[in-house]
Amino acid sequence: MSKPLLQVRGLTKRYGDRLACADVSFDLVPGEVLAIVGESGSGKSTLLSLIATELAPDSGTVSYRMRDGALRDLGTLSEAGRRALMRTEWGFVRQDATKGLRMAVSAGGNVGERLMGLGERHYGRIRAQAIDWLGRVEIDAGRVDDPPSQFSGGMRQRLQIARNLVTGPRLVLMDEPTSGLDVSVQARLLDLIRRLSAELGLAVIIVTHDLAVARLLSHRIAVMRAGRVIETGLTDRVLDDPEHAYTQLLVSSVLAA
Amino acid sequence: MSATHTFPSPRARGEGRGDLVVDAASPQGEGEGARPNETPPSPPPYPRLPPRFADDEVGETLSPQAGRGDAERTFAQQSGYNFAYLDEGTKRMIRRAILKGIAVPGYQVPFASREMPMPYGWGTGGVQVTAAILGRSDVLKVIDQGADDTTNAVSIRRFFARTSGVATTTRTAEATVIQTRHRIPETPLTEGQTLVYQVPIPEPLRYLEPRETETRQLHALAEYGAMHVKLYEDISRHGHIATTYAYPVEVAGRYVMDPSPTPKFDNPKMDDCPALQLFGAGRERRIYAVPPYTRVRSLDFEDHPFRVQEFTHPCALCGAEGVYLDEVLLDDAGRRMFVCSDTDHCEGRRADGHVGTGDAI
User: Inter-chain contact B233–A118, Cβ cutoff 8 Å?
Assistant: First the structure.
């Protein structure tokens, strides 16, 4: 197995007396898709925010293998370094597209923002890249100047993906990217995520409560309950042969997962 | 330090109101039209200045000695206010903010903006900066959209004439302090002059980021990618950068700054300017500065470089080219003419014999 891209050790976060995330540890290798599943309030989103360093953990570390091959504890990065990393190496596709996109800015501007943040100052090149990426997420190039407020839910999520992938990140975090979309749109989006992650060799951490999404996309699954990871393993193994009583309950409560 | 030590009070420096407390309580009252008991008995010993130094007849009647440079006597005797309206403690606080702003060019320094006797949006920030830097020997010019004779300019000029008694002028070359809303005078500024801008929205990133905590963070980290998103939007919508005023600039290679609603036509004048440029935003409580001879670069794209507006016609009154023009509607049929926005520049040229066509378009 190759060296881990991301190493999470003993992540713990409390909100007052409540334990939101308890002693979570895992490794993620390049190109691997990890699904974090569990019911609402099980700490999935908190865990994702901790990994994205949007929340500071009470204890534990998140380490990331930089381009130079060294594993760095993200807690020790400067704010500027942390932001630069988030903007180039990482992506974050949010459940609510209005939080991940600039709704008043055209689709092209949304996709181009990261490039401009990296110092690209050539309009023609920015626009060409934006159009290219819209094509790759199956948005018609003619919509490049329309703001996402005029887009459908599925298109917004695809635009979010394009916006995140334009700088060629190696790790993408996704928080319930398909929730609230109707089934056929979900299927297309999942198909797209699967294709892109395979093509680009992306490592993905996807948070979902939908076991079907996890089955379709992920190589590995971590099942969370009350802030703890209670079972982890290869997706097929966990879904077909759950060990923990709660996982058995979770799997059996879904029709034909 | 002995217990008897006292700090020099403003009064000790001759700036206090001392004996005029008595005057202020006189039956004649204060404010407009107030007359102290001891009116100057004889005509002033100084020569009358040319008429352009006085605002107009009304102003002269209301505040007979304003605008003549006879600051000391007039002011102390005639009004109940400290020199230039603000108290010395406030001025000191504002000066500290200004000094910090000069030390960190383009950085927005928070300051405890005061209520001023005019509404927000009328230049309360600029007025406070001017009040803090004004000295007795200064000569003040106030412009609004380039003009010396519009409401905002006239009222602010008269405000300072009355509360500080400093000399006022409309001539750019004679002024030491120029307070402006929107324009930088066409006459090149020189060393020793100070240009004070009235700023409504000091934050250039506000368009894309409504959170103040976040914009401060972005400034601190020099993360200005979002600034170009605005320009990108312009080009994608209009085919060119359509921002024509409040055009963002990078100061001294570091901070991105909003040059207030000045037309981008004036942006190049900010670059390497010999005069000190101060910016005051009263409602937003920010002061920032561009020291003399500082690099000020307008943001742009490689394939869409920064360009200023161009006018197809010269000024209809003075025939000037390469200056910023105002469009003046003449009648209901839509006839209009283009004239210099900088009234002083236009008058000066006409006095020198330049004549425009006077034609409507």
Answer: no
